[in-house]
Design goal:
This protein is α+β, with helices and mostly antiparallel strands. Helices cover 24% and strands 17% of the residues. Helix 1 crosses helix 3.
């Protein structure tokens, strides 16, 4: 649950988090799908989960959407970091760490949403914006949305 806290709440009390259970369901199903295709998913890092509206407003200038789904507790930005180096793994096994590694997550999300239409939502694929490398935004907004930020 701590992974989903607004970043500035790590050392304050009380802490507040909004988290839709359907997001957890979708993430678990996506990870199971990836694992069934030989992708190690034993360590997933949530880069951004719930964002309190005041916090989201502060980071709009850094590229956050003004009406971000993170404010509703139904979105997470994630990397798969099974090797524990703090960066997205080379999911497509081409020897490079780039946006193409997120394509494995795209495929898993598409398959999960096809099997479980009640979990349909957004998927954004992002190039490296920090030390963690490329990442995927996954949400359960109730309508399909896809985008890529290269």
């Amino acid at each position: 649950l701590a992974d989903f806290l607004t970043h500035d709440q790590r050392s304050v009390w009380p802490k507040y988090v909004v988290l839709q259970e359907s997001l957890i369901d979708k993430l678990e199903l996506v990870l199971a799908d990836l694992a069934s295709r030989g992708v190690r998913t034993d360590h997933v890092r949530v880069l951004s989960g719930f964002r309190a509206p005041y916090y989201n407003d502060r980071i709009v200038s850094e590229g956050a959407a003004r009406a971000s789904r993170h404010q509703y507790g139904d979105a997470a930005d994630v990397i798969i970091d099974a090797n524990g180096d703090g960066r997205m793994d080379d999911l497509n096994r081409d020897g490079r760490l780039d946006l193409r590694d997120t394509q494995a997550i795209l495929g898993a999300v598409e398959r999960v949403e096809k099997r479980f239409p009640e979990l349909v939502g957004g998927l954004g694929l992002y190039h490296a914006m920090g030390a963690s490398g490329p990442f995927a935004h996954v949400d359960v907004r109730g309508a399909s949305a896809r985008w890529s930020r290269e």
